[in-house]
């Protein structure tokens, strides 16, 4: 067993787990942050995306011990009792999530992207979310949600692409 | 995952000691984007896993006497954002950008990409085209190796179990060499390369000089298209010549037929990839001059 | 609202009390996630006229907050994990299964093999699928044994210790081969064809005779996996009173409940199936998979048992979309009117029936497309092969035939030199047209929608 001290969603945590435990397993089973999902377990689907020191990573591809001393942010740490996070609000408003299983990963990847504070284009959004798979939405609504959230948070505008229906 | 013992050394020396002590039942873990997947499906425990992801000395990009030094533990994201890479080897940014998705690039390291040594690795062709060297540290001391000697076969490198890949050095004379990288995958993001290619060349007068063409995912290891290079060497630059070299490159590669792409399709991609990277490198050199 | 209160003979403003309270609080601990107060009903949902308005999902907020509990997010006291051993061989007779080594492995609490299941067969139309294969393995993803252990890894380790002796049987991978007289009979039936459908309308031979041109082509489609983001998962609890509670990612719980009760030989009122939000179904979670197995493992161990499919399990042992072999023969007048069509559909059903009958019926009805065809003959067959079984998936056979008849249409248009849109408009259903099965159609807008669609995506400009 290894003892791991880290910060999860702003709280100091100490956990004792076997070394082969992934960060995802530790978050879900030891700390009960079940928002991050296990979809493929090999880093293809992105449903387990969390932020480690501000960078989006697949929690299934990092050992809990490797996150020792780092700051981890999961979907549960975005909203507080007082404030609903703009990304989550945007995703809700445009109905970007259907079955919702990819949602936590999508939202965390979006947060990492918007946090970089760069001027974004739709193409860059697509590129940044290419590691997150969704089977329900066809991605259109998700991209819409990210654009809304980005505009809300940064105050910048992303030029709307020409609507397909006249 | 099968249970294993876990060591997190704080210095490179400690890591080497740990490797020597547990040799041969020892494996190195850094980014883990590939190795953890392997571990999850492994039938046997690796014994001891040495995590080198905390070694800051393994990271970083700097100019040294020999050239541009990139620490083996530098992540793809770090490479993409680095001003030195942008100035001297911009093709590496393109290559790093095609590795997996954001999540993979944030964890995965350049060294890891080389050590894994899959034929479709995205860092390989550019580094090979730029004649990059690797510096390896073991319990018997450091050694230097060219990439051609380093890659032995699919998932096999010349690295001994007790050795650690320290850094990748792009030789001084190749810094700023016009180069280009291209990757063909089944989708734009997070795809394994069907074929990837990189070319680097100098233009002297109106002639090709020191042409390097490297191809990935078309042979057991990342390979150089030496015959195509020889064709171009010292000849006057022309569109036809580039076309011809691309055709020769197809003959040198030995792509496989699998569920991702047929051999014929891969051959077409080799031709297109070689041609486009050569053209892009020529364009890059025009911009420079 | 009161904003002043009496505290020990002193009057304090609430505001200052809060400040004192805040100062006493430990630093750096943010509020735990809860449900944000400030947001009421989202603006989009306030709008009442439904048509033309944006709609939000009632469960959207919980999804976004990561608070939706899928099956894998549930933990019960004393819960253990089950894993299923897959055959890894396409077609074989099981000579023996030895789980004794596996039972001795650390952490293992119980094992289960097919012969221990009261009624080891299920299926929505034909009950031809075993939960765990006990005599014959019919595709590589067939489960042969299950292990329940304290951790998932222990269960996986124990799977490796299960010894199974197989006697290989001939493989039948091609549905056309499987239909032949001399093909190996996968289910010991007279034939590997287990469902047939026929539609006949008018006189096809006369129609062909009246045609100026005859077009023939065979189309094939491949197997498709649903790949729901959430793998199949279920948690079973067999309580002391002999009642079973199953939390499952099942999409059709009433149907599943009947199947579970049947396989466990329990009265249906002893089975309780609790569904939660399904993390993607697409038809793949329309029938039971491991539920009775984990119920029995729970009975053996007295613990709640959870089984979550790995991505590999998902691909090799859950249902997929039917591959079809579609032979089309169409007679055309020289003006481009369809005179007659003969269709032969062969549906590769995989190892077990699952939803093949339903799929076959729908494919059959839709195989002529939205076109007026007076002389039609459709023959359709569902065939067993030793591949992963195929079942329900979005469209139930309609996408396959749609690909075929529309491609066929394009071929004919090109051959006859008629514009692809024109040939479709010429043959499309009118108000009051009858479908191949004789259903008279009302409110038919196929022409309008074709014209509107081609105009909007710029078909005509693109043609130039």
Which key phrases capture this entry?
heterotrimer, A: 166 residues, alpha+beta, Ubiquitin-like (UB roll), DNA polymerase, domain 1, five-stranded mixed β-sheet, globular, C: 464 residues, Aldehyde Oxidoreductase, domain 3, Aldehyde Oxidoreductase, domain 4, flat
Which CATH architecture of the largest domain in chain B? Answer: 2-Layer Sandwich
- Class by alpha and beta content of chain C: alpha+beta
The count of helical stretches of chain B stands at 12
Q: Which chain pair has the greatest contact? A: A-C, 55 and 51 residues
What are the secondary-structure elements of chain B, in order, as H or E? EHEHEEEHHHHHHEEHEEEEEEEHHH
Low-confidence stretches of chain C: none
The structural domain count of chain C equals 3
Q: Mean pLDDT of chain C, nearest integer?
A: 90
CATH class call of the largest domain in chain B: Alpha Beta
Write the layout of secondary structure elements.
The complex is a heterotrimer of chains A (166), B (289) and C (464).
Chain A: E1 2-8, E2 11-17, H1 23-30, E3 49-52, E4 55-58, E5 71-73, H2 86-93, H3 103-115, H4 122-128, H5 140-154
Parallel strand pairs in A: 1-5
Antiparallel strand pairs in A: 1-2, 3-4, 3-5
Chain B: E1 5-7, H1 12-22, E2 26-29, H2 35-41, E3 48-51, E4 61-64, E5 67-71, H3 76-81, H4 83-88, H5 90-97, H6 102-107, H7 110-116, H8 124-129, E6 133-138, E7 141-146, H9 147-150, E8 151-153, E9 156-157, E10 164-171, E11 179-185, E12 193-204, E13 207-216, E14 223-224, H10 226-232, H11 239-252, H12 263-288
Helix pairs in contact in B: 10-11, 11-12
Chain C: E1 4-7, E2 10-13, H1 14-24, H2 43-46, H3 60-65, E3 80-86, E4 92-98, H4 100-104, E5 108-113, E6 136-137, E7 143-149, H5 152-159, E8 163-168, H6 175-179, E9 193-201, H7 204-210, E10 213-220, E11 224-225, E12 233-238, E13 244-248, H8 253-264, E14 271-275, H9 291-301, E15 305-308, H10 311-317, E16 320-321, E17 324-332, E18 338-350, H11 356-366, E19 375-384, H12 398-416, H13 420-427, H14 446-456, H15 459-463
Helix pairs in contact in C: 11-12
């Amino acid at each position: 067993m290894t003892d791991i001290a880290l910060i999860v969603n702003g709280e100091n945590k100490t956990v004792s787990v076997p070394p082969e435990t992934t960060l995802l397993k530790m978050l879900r089973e030891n700390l009960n942050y079940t928002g991050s999902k296990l979809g493929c377990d090999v880093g293809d689907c992105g449903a387990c995306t969390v932020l480690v020191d501000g960078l989006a990573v697949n929690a299934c591809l990092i050992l809990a011990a490797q996150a020792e001393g780092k700051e981890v942010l999961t979907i549960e740490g975005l909203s507080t009792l007082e404030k609903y996070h703009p990304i989550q609000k945007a995703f809700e408003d445009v109905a970007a999530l259907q079955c919702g299983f990819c949602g936590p990963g999508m939202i965390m990847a979006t947060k990492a992207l918007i946090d970089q504070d760069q001027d974004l284009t739709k193409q860059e959004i697509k590129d940044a979310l290419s590691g997150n798979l969704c089977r329900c939405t066809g991605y259109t609504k998700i991209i819409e949600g990210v654009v809304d959230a980005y505009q809300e948070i940064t105050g910048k505008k992303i030029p709307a692409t020409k609507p397909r229906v006249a | 995952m099968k249970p294993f013992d876990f060591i997190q050394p704080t210095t490179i020396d400690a890591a080497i000691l740990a490797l020597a002590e547990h040799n041969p039942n020892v494996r190195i873990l850094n980014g883990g984007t590939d190795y953890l997947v392997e571990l999850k499906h492994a039938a046997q425990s690796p014994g001891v896993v040495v995590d080198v992801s905390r070694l800051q000395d393994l990271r970083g990009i700097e100019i040294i006497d020999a050239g541009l030094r990139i620490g083996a533990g530098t992540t793809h994201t770090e490479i993409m954002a680095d001003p030195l890479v942008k100035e001297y080897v911009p093709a590496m940014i393109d290559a790093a950008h095609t590795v997996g998705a954001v999540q993979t690039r944030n964890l995965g390291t350049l060294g890891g990409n080389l050590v894994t040594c899959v034929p479709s690795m995205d860092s390989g062709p550019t580094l090979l085209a730029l004649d990059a060297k690797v510096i390896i540290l073991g319990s018997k001391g450091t050694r230097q190796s060219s990439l051609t000697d380093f890659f032995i076969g699919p998932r096999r490198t010349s690295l001994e179990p007790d050795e650690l890949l320290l850094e990748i050095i792009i030789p001084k004379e190749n810094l700023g060499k016009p180069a280009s990288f291209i990757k063909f995958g089944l989708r734009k993001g997070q795809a394994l390369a069907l074929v990837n290619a990189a070319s680097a060349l100098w233009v002297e007068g109106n002639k090709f000089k020191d042409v390097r063409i490297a191809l990935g995912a078309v042979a057991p290891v990342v390979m150089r298209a030496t015959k195509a290079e020889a064709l171009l060497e010292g000849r006057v630059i022309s569109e036809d010549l580039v076309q011809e070299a691309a055709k020769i490159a197809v003959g040198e590669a030995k792509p496989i037929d699998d569920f991702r792409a047929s051999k014929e399709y891969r051959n077409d991609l080799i031709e297109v990839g070689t041609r486009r990277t050569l053209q892009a490198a020529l364009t890059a050199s025009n911009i420079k001059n | 609202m009161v904003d002043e209160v009496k505290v020990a003979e002193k009057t304090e403003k609430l505001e200052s009390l809060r400040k004192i309270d805040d100062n006493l609080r430990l630093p750096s601990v943010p509020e735990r996630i809860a449900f944000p107060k400030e947001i009421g009903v989202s603006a989009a949902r306030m709008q009442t006229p439904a048509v033309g308005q944006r709609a939000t999902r009632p469960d959207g907020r919980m999804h976004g907050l990561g608070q939706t509990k899928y099956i894998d997010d549930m933990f019960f006291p004393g819960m253990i994990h089950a894993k299923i051993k897959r055959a890894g061989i396409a077609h074989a007779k099981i000579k023996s299964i030895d789980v004794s080594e596996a039972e001795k492995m650390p952490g293992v609490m119980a094992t289960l093999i097919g012969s221990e299941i009261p009624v080891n067969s299920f299926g929505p139309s034909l009950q031809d699928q075993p939960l765990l294969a006990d005599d014959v393995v019919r595709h590589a993803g067939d489960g042969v044994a299950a292990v329940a252990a304290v951790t998932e890894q222990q269960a996986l380790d124990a799977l490796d210790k299960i010894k199974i002796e197989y006697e290989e049987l001939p493989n039948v991978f091609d549905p056309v081969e499987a239909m032949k007289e001399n093909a190996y009979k996968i289910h010991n039936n007279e034939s590997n064809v287990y469902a047939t459908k026929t539609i006949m309308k008018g006189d096809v031979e006369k129609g062909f005779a009246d045609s100026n041109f005859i077009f023939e082509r065979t189309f094939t489609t491949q197997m498709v996996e649903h790949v729901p983001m959430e793998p199949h998962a279920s948690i079973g609890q067999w309580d002391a009173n002999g009642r079973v509670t199953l939390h499952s990612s099942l999409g059709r719980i009433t149907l599943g409940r009947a199947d579970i009760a049947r396989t466990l030989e329990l009265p249906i009122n002893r089975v309780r199936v609790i569904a939660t939000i399904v993390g993607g179904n697409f038809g793949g979670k329309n029938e039971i998979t491991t539920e009775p197995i984990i119920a029995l493992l729970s009975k053996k161990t007295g613990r709640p048992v959870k089984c979550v499919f790995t991505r590999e399990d998902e691909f090799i042992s859950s249902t997929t979309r039917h591959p079809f072999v579609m032979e089309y023969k169409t007679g055309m007048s020289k003006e481009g009117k369809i005179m007659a069509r003969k269709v032969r559909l062969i549906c590769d059903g995989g190892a077990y029936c699952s939803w093949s009958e339903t799929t076959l019926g729908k494919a059959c009805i839709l195989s002529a497309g939205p076109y007026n065809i007076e002389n039609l003959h459709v023959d359709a067959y569902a065939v067993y092969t030793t591949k992963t079984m195929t079942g329900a998936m979005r469209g139930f056979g309609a996408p396959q035939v749609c690909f075929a008849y529309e491609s066929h249409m394009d071929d004919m248009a090109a051959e006859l030199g008629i514009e692809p849109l024109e040939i479709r408009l010429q043959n499309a259903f009118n108000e009051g047209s009858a479908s191949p099965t004789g259903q008279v159609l009302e409110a038919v807008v196929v022409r309008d929608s074709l014209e509107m669609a081609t105009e909007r995506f710029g078909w005509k400009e693109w043609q130039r």
